[in-house]
Amino acid sequence: MLLPVLLGVTFLVFSIISLTPGDVATMILGQGATQESVAELRTEMGLDEPLIVQYGKYLGNLVRGDMGISYATKKPVVEEILSRFPNTLTLAFFSILVSILISIPIGVISAVKQYSSFDNLGMIFALIGISMPSFWLGLILIIVFSLTLGWFPSGGADQLRSIVLPALTLGVASTASIARTTRSSMLEVIRQDYIRTAKAKGLGNTMVILKHALRNALIPTLTVIGLEFGELLGGAILTETVFSWPGIGRLMVESIQRKDTPMVLGCIIVFSVAFSVVNLLIDILYTFIDPRIKSTY
Known about the structure:
By secondary structure, the protein is mostly helical. It contains 14 helices and no strands. The protein has two domains: 2-63, no CATH class; 85-254 and 280-295, MetI-like (MetI-like fold, Orthogonal Bundle).
């Protein structure tokens, strides 16, 4: 399904960017350029051709691995994206790691101690995390931990400490979704007959929860983790912008502002492929967690 997804996404983005106000040739040459110079550049770039023809040429080049040349930097789009993608991958990895380390224990304990004070506090935290805008949380973290306390840099990726605040900003939002899913899944599993049987055999409560209940409750949680990680790989646009993080999300914002069509399309393609690959890997991981899934294939 990756091919039709890419075709649909690229065509929609190509069409939308073409319909946005402003002329690429004028933006490149500047407002003082003559009409003749603008017309000549439009012809050279193929911008005077019908939209479907421009899109067809773009697809032809894409099949050969050529994403085009950036209108703004005059560099190959592939090189620009490859230079930024490791930063986005690093941020996404640490963000989802923060989420997993916080959310799964909260979800498991909340399910085991349903309706307790811990459960109520955990779900309140999850609700706040889902409702809180990431850019607002990022600004608050900058004010407290960067400007006031001076513990971490307010932006950039020059130091190892630079990743702490953006990773926390993204991790909190993901933590909320994963914690709620883990709790719901655990509540369903711990009421099953085989859990009562395991307890009746004399297994300790901790062993039953970790070995039997949690493993069977992980599939819905893995689905959410995969979706969250795919979205993070797609570029945490607002967070990367707030923290001046040199990732793909920030690159796409800058490219949209400059109407840099090849760069925007390149970023969108990377987003789509990354999201699809992550979901494929999650589907494969299901078979290792639940052997019953492997037996159906």
